Amino acid sequence: xxxxxxxxxxxxxxxxxxxxSIQKQxxxxxxxxxxxxxxxxxxxEIARKYGCKIVAGxxxxxxxxxGAKVAKGDVLLFxxxxxxxxxxxxxxxxxEFKQRGLGIAGFKVLPLHGRxxxxxxxxLYNTWVALNQRILPYAATxxxxxxxxxxxxxxxxxxxxxxEDISYTRKMAKVAKYGYIDEPFFxxxxxxxxxxxxxxxxxxxxxxxxxxxxxxxxxxxxxxxGHYKDEKK
Length: 233
Hints:
It is a single chain. The chain is built from nine helices and eight strands. It has helices at 15-23, 43-49, 60-70, 89-99, 116-131, 147-152, 164-173, 190-195, 199-213, and strands at 2-8, 30-36, 53-56, 75-79, 83-84, 104-111, 142-146, 178-187. The chain has an eight-stranded mixed sheet with strand order 3-2-1-4-7-6-8-5, with helices on both faces. The radius of gyration is 16 Å and the shape is globular.
């Protein structure tokens, strides 16, 4: 069984899109767990409408950990709330995850309704991840993980302020086989719309920080969670 865990905070605009894409999957042996950080909009109402299990959340690391604690599946899929999965994504991802004996996996991510610069940025990111998967494991936005290994390493480090997903992936890759699965899904570009495309520079610098200095446990990069309410889909 697959347990899909989605951290949320005021996600009434995007949550229906990802839940609808999950309902349309050809793979059906899954549950959806919403780890909510205190939404004031219709997020929880939407989650109940789609039959999701709901737990208390917080920042993404805490929400993912809380979701994993109640997960029934032996495989976990951590998703951001603003993604859309093609109908065969779960079937193909689970098939390759099992066939290759993976314990942690990242995926090819494509921009949803992005500009040409966004398409280029995501292309460069996907190419970088594919080429460096044996040296610098990356997984973000959608992370597939073996539940036993997740619990063995203590889950996500809740003290990390930014790129906790990358630190988690690197830690998991020390105890389980990592793999990059060339199965695409789509994510919004709302952070770029809200904060500007110069955020790519921030992410690049943050990536260098993680690679050379370790986990980011200070607010040096001023990362914000859940501040997209004024943006349209």
